[in-house]
Write a structure and sequence with these properties.
The structure holds two protein chains of two kinds. By secondary structure, chain A is an all-alpha fold. Chain A contains nine helices and no strands. Chain B has one domain. Chain B is globular and about 60 Å long. Classes of the chains: A mainly alpha, B mainly alpha.
């Protein structure tokens, strides 16, 4: 049990996907202008991450390993993720229209979110068991949401600040992300 | 025909400054930030990315008329993932230490938006020759940014560049530069510098 908690905390804060592995930087820069859209994006990513963790674990350990097809790992994973995102989108649209309206536009973007593929690769690399993979997926998603929401909060305030001309837009976003990463380094050593 | 020559050379040159994938389009930030803690890692990941980018551009632009429009993205991804597997196996076999340093960032080339972006925006509509020029330009632009970023971080963070010590004993390494925050700070300042130069040039 303790180990599972550690995996969760490690994925969520200590080794935060965005701020220490630099995975999912594109949505981090693109969708962090408003807190509300950041929360929706974070939810969508957490959702897909958890399902990806389950499905890629099953495919890797039940199909690729027994048939010695590990070399197809990358091709399989990316295809699984792409079709999974499509499925999830159709599923949400069928069962819950309000949820679809909130997450809808973010779902297609997730296919090219490197955090999702990164999650599948890390789970294989660290030889997680089935349960550990799920916890890892949820933790990574929570960490992504956390980073995104904090960033959106800062950027909402930043609109009122006077940023030097050349730093406007991407420049200041990077500097702010750097400060956030610096703050998150304070968690290092917990696990 | 001077105009045509001009145009062709621009396909190559635009990737280096005007449409630089990292500094202007902000694509492919994940490897840019993650593996530039030393110049050599930056070089290795750009070469691997360049190989995948140029090969998939060449292949996709050659078969662009055979790919049905509805499933084109999936086709591109499979082609890209295949070349990434080749690059990854090559690194693991011949440069095991680099492969270990780069870790999951080599397979993550699959989802590098620079590559998919170029296929969708350029290779899908142009002939192989132009696509190769375009992707080579993007590769050089990507390589230059990663080399500059890697060198700055390595010089300030470890006092060396390409593992050659260039700073004397008096130099106290800024540890933070080779850690994640340093990547964000350096890239932020580089982007600001590019904006400054572009503003000066526009005047």
């Amino acid at each position: 049990m303790m180990e599972l908690i550690l995996i969760f905390i490690s994925a969520a804060v200590v080794n935060n996907f965005v701020l220490s592995y630099f995975l999912g930087i594109c949505p981090f820069v693109g969708v962090s202008k408003r807190i509300s859209s950041a929360v929706s994006m974070g939810m969508a990513v957490t959702f897909v991450m958890t399902i990806t963790a389950v499905v890629t674990w099953l495919i890797y350990h039940l199909i690729l390993v027994p048939f010695k097809l590990e070399i197809l790992e990358y091709v399989t994973f990316i295809l699984v993720i792409a079709s999974l995102v499509q499925l999830v989108e159709m599923f949400i649209q069928k069962i819950s229209q309000p949820l679809y309206e909130v997450l809808g536009i973010y779902l297609p973007l997730i296919t090219t979110n490197c955090a999702i593929l990164g999650l599948a690769l890390f789970a294989v690399l660290r030889e997680y068991t089935f349960i550990e993979s799920i916890i890892f997926g949820v933790g990574a998603g929570a960490g992504f949401t956390l980073a995104l929401v904090i960033m959106a909060g800062i950027r909402e305030e930043l609109e009122l600040a006077e940023v030097p001309g050349i730093f406007q837009g991407a420049g200041i976003t990077m500097i702010v992300a750097g400060c956030l990463a610096l703050a998150f380094m304070g968690f290092a050593g917990i696990s | 025909m001077p105009k045509r020559v001009n145009k062709l050379s621009y396909e190559f040159l635009k990737g280096i400054w005007d449409e630089n994938p990292v500094l202007i389009s902000l694509l492919g930030l994940c490897p840019t930030l993650a593996v530039t803690n030393s110049a050599i890692n930056g070089l290795a990941i750009s070469l691997a990315t360049g190989f995948v980018l140029i090969c998939s551009s060449l292949l996709i632009s050659s078969v662009r008329k055979l790919i049905p429009k509805q499933v084109r993205i999936a086709c591109y991804i499979v082609i890209i993932a295949t070349f990434v597997t080749i690059a990854d196996r090559y690194l693991a076999a011949f440069h095991p230490s680099i492969s270990k340093d780069l870790g999951p960032y080599v397979p993550l080339i699959v989802v590098n938006c620079v590559i998919l972006g170029r296929q969708e925006a350029f290779s899908a509509k142009n002939n192989p020759w132009r696509s190769t020029l375009d992707s080579s330009g993007m590769f050089v632009g990507f390589l230059l940014v990663l080399l500059v970023l890697g060198s700055i971080r390595e010089i300030l963070g470890s006092g060396s560049v390409f593992n050659f010590q260039i700073m004397g004993d008096w130099f106290i390494p800024w540890m933070v530069m080779i850690l994640p925050p340093g990547a964000f700070f350096t890239l932020g300042i580089l982007i600001a510098l590019v904006n400054l130069i572009n503003q000066k040039r526009a005047k």
